[in-house]
Amino acid sequence: MKSLFKIWKIVNVADNERALLFRRSRFERVLPPGRHRIWLLSGDVRVETYDITEVVFDAIKAKFLLNTYSEVLGEYLQSYELSDQQVGLFYRDGNLVDILPPGSYRAVWKGGETVRVGIVDISREYTIDDNVLGLLGRGACASQIRIAAQAVSYNEVPDEHVGLLVVNGKLEKALQPGRYGFWKYNRSIAVKLIDMRLQTIEVSGQEILTKDRVSLRINLSGSFKITDPQRVALKLSDYKNHIYRELQLSLREAVGTQTLDSLLADKDRLNIVIATAIHKKLAHYGIEIVSVGVKDIILPGDMKMILNQVVEAQKESEANLIKRREETQAMRSLHNTAKMMDNNPTLLRLKELESLEKVSTRIDKISVYGGLEGVLNDLVKLRPTA
Q1: What are the residue boundaries of the Band domain, all occurrences included (predicted)?
Q2: Are 299 and 216 in contact (CB under 8 A)?
Q3: Which of 5, 7, 219, 243 is deepest in the core (most CB within 10 A)?
Q4: Which structural domain range is residue 146 located in?
């Protein structure tokens, strides 16, 4: 019995396993499920057992074995080999589970699961089909997420935005709102988002000298929108910085050509001058300036005190002028009244009675001498009797 065990080797292969028999380091045959007796006297024997439920045949020399012993191994294994311009979508039982990069080779066991490899030619078309993109984005496990991140450039373009697709440093096309996927293999992919909504920009704390050499600190606000995103991307590396610089220069030029009084008198004119100056410059790059407005004009402390004194003197002068005008008007009115009474005794008498009424309203008690006739005739006289 002992000699029998030295001559034969018993190998048990489960239903979910396949075994490769090597004799003297050379492949001999495949051992299907069952019990096998291996003759040992013909040379050194090695048995490699594989679980076919793992599907992938991951032997180091898989490609060599399949190419050399295709007639024997072809019954048990299926191979897929991709060119440098192809990507493989690896499906198991209809589920996408892996991405095969260009130039890769994969062998799978037959009989375990339904396996399929979808071949995608990326030599010219690098856009991923939307259905495939949805499968790649589901992230069933951490390894799939890692593989997808290495293989796929996934991009989302929000509403009111435009995506600019740049391939190998060249602008290819504009992308409308939606989701997009591109194969990274063999090329550099980048998507730059351009905001098409109305945007604002602030130019704050600008120290500028006016024409009459008064130092001012001015805060400017502007709003703009992109009208041609492709031109903006091609012509400007940083369009917001360019708009800021143009507003800053236009503000300095507009303020430097006006005196302090003219600036304070009409700020709207300053806004118009700045907007007009930069409208054509920005339109050349596909940018529309919508509005420009000076928010604040801040004066130095001493200049502010002087202006307050000037304003105070102006207001005081205006008040005195109004007062003198009213006094002149009152004197003119009195003069006209006197002339009318001089030629009309009845009107004069009515005025005397009106004056008597006003006097009597301020007196609590009146002592009358000479009767009522004395009160009416002698108490109030607007002019001496002849």
Answers
A1: 152-311
A2: yes
A3: 243
A4: 126-192
